[in-house]
Amino acid sequence: MRKDKPNLTFEELREKLITYITDENDLDMIRKAYMLAFEKHFGVKRKSGEDYIIHPLNVAYILTEIYADAKTIQAALLHDVVEDTDVTIEEIEEMFGSEVALLVNGVTKINRLNFQGDNEAMIANHRKILVGLTEDVRVIIIKLADRLHNMRTIWALPEKKQKQKAKETLDILTPIAHRLGIGSIKSELEDLSLRYYKPDTYFDIVEKLNKSKAERDQLVIEMKQSVSSILNEHGIKHEIKGRSKSIYSIYKKLDKGKKFSDIFDLLALRVFVDTESECYQALGIIHSKYRPIPKRFKDYVAMPKTNMYQSLHTTVFGEGGQLYEIQIRTYEMDKVAELGIASHWSYKENGSNVKANMKNTMEQKLQFFRNIMDLKQEETNDADFVKSVSEEVLKENVYVFTPKGDVIELPSGSTPIDFAYRVHSGVGDKMVGAIVNNNIVPLDYVLKDNDIIKINTNKNSIGPSREWINMAYTSSAKNKIKAFYNKIDKEGYIEKGQEILKDECRKKKIAFNEIISNENIEKILKEYKFRNVDELYVNVGNGKITPTMIFNVINNNNENKVDIILKKATNNANIKQTVNKNDIVVEGIDDIKVNIASCCKPVPGDRVIGYITKGNGISVHRSVCPNVSELEERLIEVNWNTKISKKYSTTLLIRASESKNILLDVVSKTSNSDITIQSINSLSQSKDEYVFEITVMVDCKESLVKFMNDINSLQKINSIERIIK
Ligand code: MN
Description:
By secondary structure, this protein is an alpha+beta fold.
């Protein structure tokens, strides 16, 4: 059944709008947005054969089903005009105001992102970019509606495109829809994506469902009547609906190893009542007649999920020993389950500012957003980020309480250590013990739903124990403990470095003060590219640099300098990029192992030179790389082949004058080019400068240069350069 409306008119959309938007001025502006979109897309057809305007109309229509506000509807109607026609953002701003312009701009930027990528880190990165960097949640909601209509009409695209879009939807958009609690859009997107991503599995499930449908329908009708009559006996006003499970949810269960028969045997009902207390009454009445399976009872009424979902869930043995999953909820709870964060639009609070309300909801109620923001600030590498996302987005969670009764959501497997660090880093760092439900527990105790946790702290505590890194479950707690130790270690190394250097001076009978004269220090810092004396001591303290190396620098001893450079070059070689055979031609040698140097990361088109390592083939450096440019021996001529078989990565250092939206801007520059982003790392952020590293994969230098020029042309960018480590 086609859910899209290929013949939708503005009048039909308007009929829906006036059911909840009453302000004449708002309705006028929406019509104006429609007129502009109609005029600008005029004459353009979609792949499905319809006039282009049908698409924005459908997107707006989907949004009326979640009661989107007037500005969002205007932006939805205009969402493709900047990308596809000659209208500029400035013109939108002039005609519709800055808010609508901001929304359209956000959607345009997101649509330019290239979400392709198979590796988990990239997928997670994209999710991070989409959610973490979008300032107004309405942009994401428009994007979800846009994708929903595109998925509804994706039959018009070639199979390869269908699969790619379906996978992208499941990887990136449905987890976000879930977290925002927008159940209606989420489950339709999931089913549509599965239909195109794994058509065989999808139709297999549909067919099996159809086969047993008549029989299951009959059982559900009987159970409905039976439940209804006992609720009536107790005078509880209610409605009961049979509930069909989504194809995707069945697929997920099969994927987890459940059997077809077990899933299909489970029949589902949903009971609607007026008030929260009637939810519990209805539950009691149902349990008194039908035996429940104890472990299957879940009270999401007292403890809503973080996406605000509320309901009572229970599974009972019904007529004839048949299992029934029953959900009990009020009509209000049902609305939240379907609309999630968008349900806050529909509260008609007289004269209050809907946008402020949305922003509030976003900032205060959604832990997800906070988690993502947290992750942006902590130094996390990609692997950690993937873990956090799968922990915190995809896995089941436990809900525990602070002694004051605040609910804290943590991934299953969390311990009191995770709890303490979630509450506040300070609490974690000063923790000396934990009490759960009035009992002292070991710190590796695994938290359970409903646990009440009190963390004992001592302000004289010297800090977390290193063992806690293994006891903590969440990457965020682990990172905070590691950060604590990195700081301590740094101080320790500075002291140690100083001592080592002083000792060595004593042995060599040189005055320490002479060694650290301003002139000498300057020389050393320049040689090793250290920023300050502390960094020098840290490197001596941890053994990366020996006092002899320092004395050599001071005495300009060149013989040893080569050693130093060599050491640096090999140190850097720990992350190796493999070279496809034939991408690099080594003069005079056919069959030899070739590595790309990770210090200067050459890409095809760069002038390169080979360095013959001891026992590890040839490492290819850029000719300008200082790690090899001063070497004379063991160098060999190498060249890129004329044909290159894969992309190679290189790292760029970017300095920007502000951080707002900058990553989004940078990432959007990769669209329509052959650049793929591998990772982004924030290095530092101060009031007037934001510095980050971005590693990209390119197949030739021209694309890289063009990309760098594109970035440089952005207003907020101070500089962009390739890094040599
Ligand atoms: Mn669109």
